[in-house]
Specification:
By secondary structure, the protein is an alpha+beta fold. It is built from five helices and two strands, in the order ααααββα. α1 runs antiparallel to α4 and α2 crosses α4. The protein is elongated and about 55 Å long. The protein starts with a helix and ends in an 11-residue tail after the last helix.
Length: about 100
């Protein structure tokens, strides 16, 4: 289970569309940061920063494959976040006793 601080970090990382896309691409585990950077209209350094945010949140890791470092989704962490999101109570803001 994620601690409150870990949950904040994970959901903050997931709040950005580019990071969510990187996470989806990392599911295949066949691209490094350089290959990922080619897919976005931003600098290599900017993509590297996005990957670093995902790493700090525990959502991706870099795994060595020969001379390359592949960006790979940490599926268990993603599942933990998904479970937490599903368990959140839905509340429409109205008093439940009305």
């Amino acid at each position: 289970m994620l601690s409150p601080a870990e949950a904040d970090q994970v959901f903050s990382a997931l709040a950005d569309a580019t990071r969510r896309d990187i996470l989806r691409r990392a599911m295949a585990g066949s691209e490094g940061v350089a290959e990922l950077a080619e897919r976005y209209p931003m600098s290599f350094a900017a993509v590297q920063k996005h990957v670093a945010v995902l790493e700090r949140a525990g959502l991706v890791a870099k795994e060595r494959a020969g001379r390359r470092k592949l960006v790979v989704t940490q599926v268990e962490r993603l599942k933990q976040a998904q479970r937490l999101a599903v368990e959140l109570p839905l509340h429409d803001g109205r008093d439940q006793h009305e």
